[in-house]
Amino acid sequence: MKKIIIIAFSLFLYGCDTGQAENTVMKETNFRSETFKPKQQIKQHKITAFVEPTDNAFLSFQVSGTIEKKHINIGDVVEINDPLFSIDNPSLGPKIQQFDAEIKALEATINQNQAELSRLTDLKKSNAVSQNDLDRLINQNNNLLAKKDSLKAQQSEAQSMFDELLLSAPFKGTVAEIYKEAGENIASGEPILLLGGIDSLEAPVYLTSQLQNHLKTGQILNANYQGQAFQVSVKEISHAANPKSQLFKVVIGVPLDLGIKSGEQISIIIPEQMGFHYALPISAVIDDGINKPYVMVLDKSKVRQLYVHILGLQGNMLLLDLDTNFGNLDQIDVVTEGQSHLSVGQTINNNLGEQSL
Length: 357
Fold this sequence. Notes:
The structure is a single chain. It contains 3 helices and 22 strands. It has 357 residues and is α+β, with helices and mostly antiparallel strands. It folds into 3 domains: 2-42 and 275-356, conserved putative lor/sdh protein from methanococcus maripaludis s2 fold (Beta Barrel), CATH 2.40.420.20; 44-54 and 200-272, Efflux pump adaptor protein, beta barrel domain (Elongation Factor Tu (Ef-tu), domain 3, Beta Barrel); 56-194, CATH 2.40.50.100. Helix 1 (92-125) runs antiparallel to helix 2.
């Protein structure tokens, strides 16, 4: 309840013995008071975030070479397995052919060795050859088979590298950046383009542990994009802080139906439950920056001074607690305007000019 109280003070001046007339001076005092109770206070934090695709990848070749052909341009939408770039590496083709020739020659040697092994095995039955000769041939055959397996593995690796000469899209997306053009050389692992997905968007934010603790996966939050209000959801919450910034990453899911593009900025409102505190107008708190801040309250028609502990600003209201041994009271009648007309300890006569608003 808000009240405006007007108090009239009378000052009587008596004349001296000369018979001077009696003079009365009337002075009006105006102030405003309002009753406040501690309430659950929720502080709204406005966080700026930048939208990015959920699938976002820097693509590169696993082999070095010269870019032979560029199949795409910036802004193109590609499907999964669509060709993006092809490069030329003159050494890979001959290497595969060399492995193929070595394997064929080795297979011929293995066939001859196995034929000889079969003949000696038959002769051993009649003791025409020694066991040592037979074991030697068996070991030789095993070594040839092992060498063949090794060559086949090297050939398979070379073939895989040859297949890497064509870079294909790993998912459906939009070509966001291109870093190389046809005719340029590129090293193994060097990024050649940035591919952004188009099926879903997200916006990572980085929060303190105090604010992160107020969020949970699936929680709906209010957001704003170019003046348009909409809602987003919490997708992921990291429980490990960045060692340098000591902030926690939280991933926010962004809807597609608003036409928001990758790289654009949105604002996200994250609520923080601060507990039960008073919310008072700024004008109610007297703070000269040197002494403890305080408020004037009306207690049984008397003006009293209560020190306060300011927690922060929420809109045009100050969140605070009473800085007293007994803590917050169920309610307090706070003077919000006109404190300069009052003094601590002054008695207020509520019958003089009280008006309820």
